[in-house]
């Protein structure tokens, strides 16, 4: 017969261990199963109640789900009540069993007894599925007009759920919902206003209709505000704050973007904002909602001031909850009225130091939004001070924010460098790689600060405690500007004098190398720096050799490779060493910045433009015929050794280097013996332009040049090097476009008659006409293996309109015939730049599509640059069906939205 | 809207769990565990709001019991805080001086009260008197 519910609960509570509890539950479950099997009617509702308790303890209970349905189907109220309760607890909308209850629900909704109808509405509102919602919507809609307020309010909230599940039913409920707004009963009003809000969020038409009801809403709110004491709905002296909040929220939706309604509601908003008492939580909740509404509706200056003042009061409140919502709201408001928020800056900064993480997070976000050129110094100082004492888990966030602020608003470079050193000196490794990279670019671009920077870093490094970022930057700078440590070059006014010997500088690198905390990346940095120092500090050469040597046996390939290569340079190639380890050319800041802004870092208009005038004419002057140029390229890539024209390898310094690099010596056919050009030759991959200046090499190899850590020249020439610090991670990130463009540029120019420098990227002229081998060859350049991915597919024009051209190149990764990588390039043919450029694609079911982030969202005018994007496709029906894709491209011209669509069905066969 | 409501004691035992979104049982247990961990060690001076995954939890402690509501990130925190208090007042009234044991032994009643107070993840009735009266009417039906 089993025990009573109460006894079972007692038995469970009496258990001392989890095992004991499991025993009790197992016994109880066995009893329940038996009793369910016997179809015991008398105790069914008690059994289901027990089951619910067992469920709450976390034990499986699905064996009892059917019992709930049986209870619901039975006639009496007590059975139904437990049945519905069990249904809501033990089942949810995803279970098939739930469908069985639809009919019972329908009957109960139409039941004459209000309590039973209420139960059904409650269950429906809490767990109905989309199908049930659709089936039962007419019943629920009918109940919205029921003369019992209890039923009406439940039906209204039930409709909320139905509309959420089936958004197309919005229209069906709009009229009855508006009807609810005139209801006298508070409960119905609350539910009705909620329903209206839900409808407005889902449909523009409903919103329009609701705008006609502004007066009604205002009147309800007014009644609440001016009415006297209403004991039933009173919370801390305020009449039904919940209803007030609901109405304010609906007003927000209605007033947003509609000056007329905003105007109608402004009086009552002002009244709520001024008359609501802010000494209790309920009052503050209303004020908070009111502020949000004021800030969202169409601007009324006076009201906004009022709202910001309320937030100011909140901020000064001692209650943390209130301060939290104030910060939260100020974050949203700051874009509307920065000045007003600035006034509370000191308070906000204090909040960053609060002990409560919720407050800290909000405050930090707000500070971040508040910083500008004028206050960056003070705020950064505050934040830096706080960084020293903040919780470890908060540091990463804070560091990232400080770095980005410093970067964005630095008044001058020296200050920027100073702050970055301070941040890096903080314990823990929270400075992100790209931040370091930016720092290096900035340092490299400030020749007058080279000395200062390296000395400051050296000084900071004396208290080094394993901070990786600091070590990397310091090692890099010492490698590049080490001599300035010793010779006090470019000493700034007021700079503390520092006496360093050459061996002190090497000491620093040694410390880093020997430290167990240094990662292999840092070690690789150190090796390169040592190589550089060997020529800056000739007296230390022997020591440097000794330091490089141990890594010859390193288990990390990159370190081993560097060590061996550098060792060879030091021992055998003294004559070219000085040239090799020259200071890095100044890293192109503009390129780097725009690359960064582009996200993935792709083709840059400035880059292309600069490349053409320099590279173009030079190449023409040197005028190698096309086949030869191509061959050289191929040689370099070790693609087609057989076809190389025979050349007597010249024993120039460059050859050594190249053979060292494993590249074909033929590539150096143009390498002159002038050691100055050795570097250029390597960099320019056998470009027949020995006179080309450094900027040309930069443009030919933007990724390498922009990579501040390409300090090891060898990495530049050996793109397959796996662990080049930053270089490796940068290489894939700085996508294909710049290289492809500029190289193609060259091929094309050298093969044709002289042309005036072009503005546009040549890629679009080349498009489909250029022999395909070039494309695949060049595509191969950026993938890590030297052998390019095999591809025999021509470039196609996927979409062409008057203003836009979309090209697709295809790469077929070897080994997987199903997948294809499409390199899409977008070219603007009109004379206006496109902004907010978004590319969307849809494919049939047998294809799987994955869009990589685009290289940018701004497309300069007249083909002055392009956006590229990789699309990975997997054709699950490879060989049976060919590719098919629909495109949609959205962008803005002069702020106006434009959409272009098209279908691509001209994919090459066999993809 | 309210995603779920939890009532837990300091040891993390769930005394009431009401979900307005469908979740797997295992996911529910994980949530309950996480929410408990999140709120149990917070200083009473701290805010009653904690960001939780993509939502936020509004919680309030009454003696050894934590009442937590998980709501949308754009919802009015203060209002939900107030509604937790209203719920507690209703319970207090119904059980006349409620304690944890009342909630354990009458857990089904607590669910019924909650169903009168919140429906479909939205506040349904804000009058304490109306709910108490309703409950006694329902009791009479038994």
From TrEMBL, chain A:
One of its GO terms (molecular function) is clathrin adaptor activity. One of its GO terms (biological process) is Golgi to vacuole transport. Residues 791-908 form the GAE domain. The keyword RNA-binding does not apply. Belongs to the adaptor complexes large subunit family. SUPFAM superfamilies: ARM repeat (SSF48371), Clathrin adaptor appendage domain (SSF49348). Keywords: Cytoplasmic vesicle, Golgi apparatus, Membrane, Protein transport, Transport. This is AP-1 complex subunit gamma. The keyword Membrane applies. The lineage of its organism: Eukaryota, Viridiplantae, Streptophyta, Embryophyta, Marchantiophyta. It is found in: Cytoplasmic vesicle membrane; Golgi apparatus. Coiled coil: none annotated. InterPro entries: Adaptor_Complx_Large_Subunit, AP1_complex_gsu, ARM-like, ARM-type_fold, Clathrin/coatomer_adapt-like_N, Clathrin_a/b/g-adaptin_app_Ig, Clathrin_app_Ig-like_sf, GAE_dom. PANTHER family: ADAPTIN, ALPHA/GAMMA/EPSILON. Residues 598-627, 748-767 are annotated as: Disordered. PROSITE patterns: GAE.
From TrEMBL, chain B:
It is found in: Cell membrane; Membrane, Coated pit. One of its GO terms (biological process) is clathrin-dependent endocytosis. Keywords: Cell membrane, Coated pit, Endocytosis, Membrane, Protein transport, Transport. InterPro entries: AP_complex_ssu, AP_mu_sigma_su, APS2, Longin-like_dom_sf. GO terms for molecular function: clathrin adaptor activity. SUPFAM superfamilies: SNARE-like (SSF64356). It is a peripheral membrane protein. Residues 1-141 form the AP complex mu/sigma subunit domain. GO terms for cellular component: AP-2 adaptor complex. Belongs to the adaptor complexes small subunit family. This is AP complex subunit sigma. It comes from Marchantia polymorpha.
């Amino acid at each position: 017969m089993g025990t009573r519910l109460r006894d079972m609960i007692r038995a469970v509570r009496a258990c001392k261990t989890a095992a004991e509890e499991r025993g009790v539950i197992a016994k109880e479950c066995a009893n329940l199963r038996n009793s369910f099997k016997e179809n015991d009617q008398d105790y069914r509702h008690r059994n289901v109640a027990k089951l619910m308790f067992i469920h709450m303890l976390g034990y499986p209970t699905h064996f009892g789900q059917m019992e709930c349905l049986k209870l619901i189907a039975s006639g009496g109220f007590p059975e139904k009540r437990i049945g519905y309760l069990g249904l809501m607890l033990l089942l949810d909308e995803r279970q098939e069993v739930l469908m069985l209850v639809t009919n019972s629900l329908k009957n109960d909704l139409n039941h004459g007894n209000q309590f039973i109808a209420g139960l059904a509405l409650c269950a429906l509102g809490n767990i109905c599925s989309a199908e049930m919602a659709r089936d039962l919507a007419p019943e629920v809609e009918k109940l919205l007009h029921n003369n019992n307020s209890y039923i009406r309010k439940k039906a209204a909230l039930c409709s909320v759920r139905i509309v959420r599940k089936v958004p197309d039913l919005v229209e069906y409920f709009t009229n009855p919902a508006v009807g609810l707004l005139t209801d006298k009963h508070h409960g119905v009003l609350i539910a009705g206003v909620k329903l209206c809000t839900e409808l407005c969020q889902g449909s523009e038409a409903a919103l329009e209709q609701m705008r006609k009801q502004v007066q009604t809403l205002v009147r309800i709110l007014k009644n609440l505000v001016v009415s006297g004491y209403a004991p039933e709905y009173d919370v801390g002296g305020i009449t039904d704050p919940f209803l007030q909040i609901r109405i304010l929220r609906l007003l927000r939706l209605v007033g947003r973007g509609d000056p007329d309604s905003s105007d109608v509601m402004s009086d009552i908003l002002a009244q709520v904002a001024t008359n609501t008492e802010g000494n209790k939580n309920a009052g503050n909740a209303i004020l908070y909602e009111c502020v949000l509404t004021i800030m969202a509706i169409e601007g009324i200056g006076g009201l906004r001031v009022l709202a910001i003042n309320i937030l100011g009061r909140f901020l000064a409140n001692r209650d943390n909850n209130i301060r939290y919502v104030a910060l939260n709201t100020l974050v949203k408001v700051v874009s509307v009225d920065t000045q007003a928020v600035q006034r509370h800056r000191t308070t906000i900064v204090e909040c960053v130091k609060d002990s409560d993480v919720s407050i800290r997070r909000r405050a930090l976000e707000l500070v971040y939004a508040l910083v500008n050129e004028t206050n960056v110094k003070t705020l950064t100082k505050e934040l830096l001070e706080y960084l020293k004492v903040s919780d470890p888990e908060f540091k990463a966030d804070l560091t990232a924010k400080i770095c980005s602020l410093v970067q964005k608003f630095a008044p001058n470079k020296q200050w920027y460098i100073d702050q970055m050193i301070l941040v890096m000196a903080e314990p823990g490794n929270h400075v992100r790689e790209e931040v370091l990279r930016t720092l290096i670019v900035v340092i490299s671009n400030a020749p007058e600060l080279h000395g200062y920077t390296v000395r400051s870093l050296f000084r900071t490094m004396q208290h080094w405690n394993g901070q990786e970022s600091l070590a990397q930057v310091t090692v890099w700078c010492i490698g590049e500007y080490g001599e300035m440590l010793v010779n006090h070059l470019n000493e700034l006014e007021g700079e503390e004098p520092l006496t360093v010997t050459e061996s002190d500088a090497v000491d620093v690198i040694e410390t880093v190398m020997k430290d167990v905390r240094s990662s292999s990346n840092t070690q690789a940095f150190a090796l390169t720096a040592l190589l550089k120092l060997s020529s800056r500090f000739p007296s230390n050469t022997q020591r440097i050799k000794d330091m490089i040597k141990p890594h010859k046996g390193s288990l990390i390939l990159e370190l081993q490779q560097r060590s061996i290569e550098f060792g060879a340079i030091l021992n055998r190639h003294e004559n070219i060493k000085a040239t090799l380890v020259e200071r890095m050319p100044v890293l192109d800041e503009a390129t780097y910045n725009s690359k960064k802004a582009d996200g993935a870092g792709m083709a840059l208009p400035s880059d292309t433009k600069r490349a053409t005038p320099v590279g173009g004419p030079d190449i023409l002057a040197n005028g190698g015929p096309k086949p030869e140029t191509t061959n050289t390229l191929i040689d370099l890539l070790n693609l087609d050794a057989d076809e190389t024209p025979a050349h007597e390898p010249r024993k120039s310094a460059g050859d050594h280097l190249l053979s060292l690099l494993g590249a074909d010596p033929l590539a150096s056919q143009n390498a002159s013996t002038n050691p100055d050009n050795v570097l250029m030759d390597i960099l320019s991959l056998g470009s027949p332009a020995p006179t080309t200046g450094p900027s040309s090499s930069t443009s030919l190899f933007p990724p390498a040049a922009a990579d501040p850590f390409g300090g090891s020249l060898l990495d530049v020439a050996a793109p397959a090097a796996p662990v080049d610090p930053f270089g490796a991670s940068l290489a894939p990130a700085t996508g294909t476009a710049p290289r492809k463009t500029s190289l193609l540029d060259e091929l094309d120019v050298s093969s044709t008659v002289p042309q005036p420098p072009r503005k546009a990227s040549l890629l679009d002229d080349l498009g489909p006409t250029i022999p395909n081998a070039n494309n695949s060859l060049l595509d191969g350049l950026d993938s890590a293996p030297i052998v390019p991915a095999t591809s025999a597919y021509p470039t196609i024009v996927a979409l062409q309109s008057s203003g836009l051209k979309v090209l697709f190149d295809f790469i077929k990764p070897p080994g997987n015939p199903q997948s294809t990588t499409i390199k899409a390039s977008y070219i603007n043919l009109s004379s206006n730049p496109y902004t907010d450029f978004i590319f969307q694609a849809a494919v049939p079911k047998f294809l799987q599509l994955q869009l990589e982030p685009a290289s940018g969202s701004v497309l300069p005018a007249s083909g002055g640059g392009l956006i590229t994007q990789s699309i990975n496709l997997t054709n699950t029906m490879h060989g049976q069906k060919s590719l098919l894709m629909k495109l949609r491209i959205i962008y803005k011209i002069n702020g106006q939205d434009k959409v272009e669509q098209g279908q691509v069905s001209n994919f090459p066969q066999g993809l | 809207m309210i995603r779920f409501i939890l009532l837990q004691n300091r040891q993390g035992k769930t005394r009431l769990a009401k979900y307005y979104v469908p979740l797997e049982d295992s996911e529910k247990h994980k949530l309950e565990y996480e929410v408990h961990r999140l709120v149990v060690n917070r200083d009473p001076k701290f805010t009653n709001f904690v960001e939780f995954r993509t939502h936020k939890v509004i919680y309030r402690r009454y003696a050894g019991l934590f009442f937590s509501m998980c709501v949308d990130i754009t919802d009015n925190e203060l209002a939900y805080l107030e509604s937790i208090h209203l719920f507690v007042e209703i319970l207090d009234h119904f059980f006349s001086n409620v304690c944890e044991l009342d909630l354990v032994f009458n857990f089904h009643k607590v669910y019924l009260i909650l169903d009168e107070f919140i429906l479909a993840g939205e506040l349904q009735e804000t009058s304490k008197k109306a709910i108490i009266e309703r409950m006694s009417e329902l009791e009479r039906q038994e």
